[in-house]
Amino acid sequence: MSDGKPSIAVLGGTGDLGGGLARRWAKAGYKVIIGSRSAEKGINSAEELKASLPGSDVSGADLKDAATQADIVAVTVPYANHGATLEQIKEAVQGKIVIDTTVPLRPPKVGRVQLPEAGSAGQEAQNVLGDDVRVVSAFQNVAAHHLMADHDIDCDVLVSGNNVEAREVVIGLAADGGMKAWHAGPINNAAAAEALTSILIQINKREKAHSGIRITLGK
Length: 219
Ligand SMILES: NC(=O)c1ccc[n+]([C@@H]2O[C@H](COP(=O)([O-])OP(=O)(O)OC[C@H]3O[C@@H](n4cnc5c(N)ncnc54)[C@H](OP(=O)(O)O)[C@@H]3O)[C@@H](O)[C@H]2O)c1
Known about the structure:
By secondary structure, the protein is of the alpha/beta class. The protein has one domain (8-207): 3-Layer(aba) Sandwich (Rossmann fold), CATH 3.40.50. Helices cover 39% and strands 16% of the residues. The chain is built from eight helices and eight strands. Strands 3-2-1-4-5-6-7-8 form an eight-stranded mixed sheet, sandwiched between helices. Helix 4 packs parallel to helix 5 (121-129). The protein is globular, with a radius of gyration of 16 Å.
C-alpha cells in the first residue's frame, strides 16, 4: 500500500484495455505494475506510461512478479491466454482480489455470444484460483478507446463477484477511473456482462462506434 491506496498489477497492461486501465489508475495516484509475458516488454510499457504521466508510480515486471508485488491484480489478456495466465499467477494471488476483465470471445465470430461451459470466464477464473481468491469480474463493456482518452466515460460497469466488499473495492477503482459501476451479483452473473460485449461489437460494426451501456434506476 502507498498513501493508503492499494497497488494494482495490470496483467496484459501492455495491451489496449489493460493499458487504458493502467493509465487511469496511475493518473488517480495508484501504484501500478504492468505485467507482461516478457518482463522487458512490461518495463518498457511502464516507462512509456510514466513519461506521459509525470509523477506517477508505474513499474513493469513479468506476470508472476507483478502479481506477487501487487495488492490487487487485474487480468486483461485475450481469452485464448486466460487459463494459462491464471495458472501462472495462482499461487501469487492467494488472499487477494483479482479483477477479471476477460470476454470469452472465440475469433473469428466475436459478434456471437459463445460462453464457456462453466458459464463465464469470471466463473472459470474463480474455479481455477480457488475460494481464497476474491475474483471480481468487471469492465467487459468499456471500450479501450475511451479508457485511453482523458474524458469521463459514457459507459457503466457491471461488477460481479461472490464477495461484496471486494466488489465495493472495484466499484471504487472504477469511480477513480471516471466510471460509474454497479453491484451485479455473484460471479456467475459475469455471464451477462461478458455476453453483452458481443452485442456491443455488433452495434460498433453497424454504427462505426465505440458503444457502451448505461443502467437507469427509473426511481
Ligand atoms: N479492447 C477492448 O476494448 C476491451 C473491452 C472490454 C474487455 N476487453 C477484454 O480485455 C481483455 C484484453 O483485451 P485487449 O483488447 O486489451 O487485448 P490485447 O491488447 O490484444 O492484449 C492484451 C495483452 O495480453 C497479452 N497477451 C497474452 N496472450 C496473448 C495472445 N495470445 N495474443 C495477444 N496478446 C496476448 C499481451 O501482453 P504481453 O505480450 O505483454 O504479455 C497483450 O498486450 C480481453 O479478454 C478482452 O476481451 C477488451
